[in-house]
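Progress against Task 2.4 (sequence-to-structure conversion) is shown through the following example record, which the project officer requested during the mid-term review.
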Amino acid sequence: MNVKKIHINDTEIRVISCNTVVVGSGAAALNAADRLVTYGQSDIAIVTEGMNMGTSRNTGSDKQTYYKLTLAGDGSDSIYEMAETLFNGGAMDGDIALVEAALSAQAFYHLVDIGVPFPHNRYGEFVGYKTDHDPRQRATSAGPLTSKYMTEKLEEQVRRKNITIFDGFQVIGILTDEQQEKAIGLLTLDLNGAANKDTRYVLFNCTNIVYGTGGPAGMYLTSVYPESQTGATGLAFEAGVQGKNLTESQYGIASIKFRWNLSGTYQQVLPRYVSTDQEGNDPQEFLEQYFETPGQMLDAIFLKGYQWPFDPRKIDNFGSSLIDILVYYETVIKGRRVFLDFLNNPSWGSKDGELDFSLLGEEAYTYLKNSDALFGTPIERLAHMNQPAIDLYMNNGIDLTKEMLEIAVCAQHNNGGLQGNIWWESNLKHFFPVGEVNGTHGIYRPGGSALNSGQVGSTRAAQYIATRYQDKPLDVEEFVAAAEKQIKAKMKLSDDFLSNQSEESTVLAIRKQIGERMTKYGAHIRSLEDAEKAAEEALKQLHSLVEQTKISSPLELSFCFQNYDLLICQYVYLSAIADYIKRGGKSRGSYLVYDPNGQLPLEQLPEEFRFSLSADDSLTNLIQRVIYKDGKCEFTWDPVKPIPADDNWFENVWNEYMQDKIIK
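C-alpha cells generated for the chain above:
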C-alpha cells in the first residue's frame, strides 16, 4: 500500500493504492478481509463509515439463525440436497445454490474456530433445529446476537492480521475504466475532514473492490434495519453493476423504538395486540373483530413465531400473515399505533385474566405444554422460556415487565441485490458484491441462509482475488487519467450541495420523504399504479435533489450523498416492481400485489388488499435482471440455471485441481 497526493480542481486529494479494498464492516466484509490474508493477499484495506455500524453488528431476533449443512444426528443430508432446498425457493440460480451448500460447513467451522459460541453436544455434534422453508434440522444459533458475535470475532482476526482500516470514510463514487467494463477504484468522503476541501476527499486506487455495504435499508421509513445501516446499492447501479431479483425482499412484525424482529418466543407466548390513537389513547384489542373464534386468533399469533416473514400464502383460512395485514391496516391506513402487551393475556380467550389454553390448536398447545409454559401472563411465560429476550429490551431502554412494545410491519432483508457469478464477481469486472448487497437469494429462503451466504460469498471472492487478480493497481497518473471525469462530476455535485447552505437543513426531511415513499408503495403491499407513480416521483426528486437540498454545514455532505444514492436505488427498485407486475406477476414471497380480479383476505378489509397467488410457475423459474443507464432501467428475464451435475470422479477433479483449472 502506498499514499500519494494529487490536485484536482485546486483541491488536494490523497490517493491510496493497494490490491484490494473491502468496503464495509459487517460479517461478510470482515470475513473477506480475513480470508484474503489467509489466501496470500495482504495488500488490502478496509473502508467503512463506522466499524460499529451496519446490520451484522446491530441486529438479531429472539434466536438468530445460521443455516448450514446438517452436522449432527443420524438424519440423512447432502450438499446436493441442501442446494435443492435453496434452489426450490424459486428464482435462484442452481450454481449459486450448490456453492452455498458446498461451502456451508467450511464457513461454519471457520466461525467456530475463531470463537463464535455455536452450541454442540459432548461428542462434538453441532445440533440443529428446523427453521422456515427447511425440510431438515440445519439451523443453529448462538442466541439473539449471532451475527454480532460473528462480526466481533471476525474483527479480532482482522486486527490480529494488522489489516489497515480506514474508519469514517463514506464511498460516494465507484470508479470504472472508460468503457465501464471494470472497477478501478473508489472516491470517498473523509467524514472527519469534510469541512475542509483539502481533506474532504480520499481516492482509493485498487485492482479489486469487495463491496459489503449491506441491503438498501435507508430506502424505508418503517424498517427493522438498524438506523446506522443505510446501504450504497445506488452507487453500484450508477457504475453499471447489474441488479438481480430486486422485487424480492422480506417484511415482518418488529418493534420500532428499538428495532428488533419479533419472531419466535415473542409471539409464541401469546401477547395481546393493542391499537391506540396517535396520543396513546382509545386502546383496542383489534384482532378479535377479524377472527371467527378466539382459538383461531391465538393460533395465528403463535404461528407468527415460526412464520415470521409476511407471506401471502399464509393469509387464507385465518393464517398467521393475516396479522401482518391487520397491523398494516391499523398503522398505515387508519393512522393508529399498534403495541404488543406482554403484561396481560388476550381478553378474547381469557376469563378473569387467565388464558384458556384448551382453546389452542394442537401445535401451539403441545409446544407450550412441552415448554412447561401453560400458565400465567405472556411476560411470565417469556421469562420462563427466554429470559434473554426480556433482557435484550431492558438493555435498550424498554422494560417489557412494565410497558407495552410499539410495533409495525417492517422491511427486514433484501433477497435480491447486485448480480454476481459463482465467485461473487459482478458483470463489472474486479467488483465483488458480498453479503446482503449481493442478490443470491430467490423468492423464498430458509431462515438463516443469509448469514451462510455472506460467509460463503466473501470466502469465494477472496479465493478468486488471491488466485487470479493479484495484479498491482494502476499507476496513479494512469488511474487519475481514467477516472478524472467521474471524480470531477462527483466533486461538482458536492460543490452544488455546499452552495446551498442555510440555517434550516432539509436533508433529513428529504430522507423521510424517500422512506415514506418506499414504505407506502414498495414494501409488502404493492400495486402497478402505485409502483409506477412512486418510481416517477423518485426519479423527479433525484433530478431536483440539488435544488431541494439545504445544508447547515459541510458536515451534512454525508447525508446529501446518502440521499443521492437512495434515490437512484429507489427508482431502480420501484421500476423493477412495476416491471414484474406488468409481466403478470402476482403475490408471492413476502409481498401482496393488488389484483382487481383477486379475492379479499376478509370482506371487511378495503379493496387495496385484494390479491391472488400465481397460478403457475412461469416467473418462478425466471430471474429478473436490470441495468440502470442514462437515467433509465433496462430489464431482462432469464431462465434460472439448473443445479450443476458435475463430474465428481475423484481422479478427474484431482487432476483439474492440480493443474489449477478449478478457479476460473
